[in-house]
Amino acid sequence: MKVLIVLILSTILTVTGGRAQTKQHYHVLPVDEHQVVKLVMNAPSVSCRINSTYNMRAVSIYGYPENEQFNPITTNQVSNNQHLVKLNFEDSRENFTSSISNRIFSNARESSAKPWHVYLSRGIPFDLDLRYGMGNSTVDLSGLTIEKFKINTGSADIKVGYFADVANRVAMDTFYAKVDLGVLELDKLNLSRAGEVVAEVGFGKLLINFGDELDHKSHIRASVGAGSMIVSLEDPDIPLIISFNNSPLCRIKLLQHFREIRPNVFVSESYNEEAANLISFDIDVAMGNVVFQMNE
Predict the structure, then answer these.
(1) Which of 39, 44, 182, 233 has its CA 20 to 30 A from that of 86?
(2) What is the tens place of the pLDDT at every residue in 231-250?
(3) What are phi and psi of 189, to 5 degrees?
(4) In what order do the strands lie in the sheet with 183-187?
C-alpha cells in the first residue's frame, strides 16, 4: 500500500540575520490507523518538542530550517507489516561541531533558533524511539497510544510527561529511559500505564514523579552510575518495595516510614505484595545518589 508524504510550505518573515525564513510543514499519513508506527527521531543539536494532536495524520512536523531543501523525514516505508518512520534533524541549522562551540562560547545562536514541533496523532498506535543530543525540549504524551517508549537524552535537558493529565490509551509494554550527562524528568509516570520501566543513569540526573492515580503494577529496573535518581511520590499510601544492589560509595535516602524487611530490601508502610498498584524497584547504584521523597 502506498504511503504519502505531504509537504506544505508557507513563508513568514523572521529576524534571523536579516533574512526571511520559510516555515515548512511535513506530514506522514497512516497506512492503516490500526498499524503501529515505529517512529525513530534523532535530534542531536536542536530543540524538538513533541505533542499529541487529534489530527488523523500520523506525524506532523513544523519548523524553520535554514536550508529550504531540508527534509527531516529520512525514512517512511512499510515492510514486514511494520510502518517505519525516521526523523533526523541533524544539520538542519548547523553542523554538530559548530553547535557545540556556539553553545559554549555564545548564546546568540541559541536565542535566535526556533524549535521544531512534532505532533503525533492520538488515533494512531506508536512505538517511539527518541534520541536527543543537547539543548532542552518537552515531550507531552497526553492521550497518545504508545505501546513502547524509548528515550536517550545525551546531554540534553528533557521533560517527558502527561501535562494534560490524560493517560496512555493502552497498557504500555516497556518504558525505557537513558540519561548520559543531561537531566531527564518523567512527570506522572503512572499515566504511561507501563508495566516495565527500565532506566539507565550515567553522570546525569533522572527525576521520576508518580501521581496519585495508579491502578496497575509497575516494575522499575534502574542502574545509576555517578549520577542521581530522585523519585517523588504524591500518594503516601502507594505500596512500594525497593531492592538495592549498592556500593559503599553511593548515597541512598529513603522516606522515614520505610522499613527494611531483609538486607537491602525496603518497603513502604502500606506495602502489600498482592496489591494491584504495587510499585517494585530493583536499583543498582555505583557512585551515585538515590532519593525517595514526597512531593511538597
Answers:
(1) 182
(2) 999 888 889 999 999 988 99
(3) -60, -25
(4) 5-16, 19-28, 59-63, 116-121, 48-53, 136-140, 157-161, 183-187, 205-210, 228-233, 289-294, 251-253
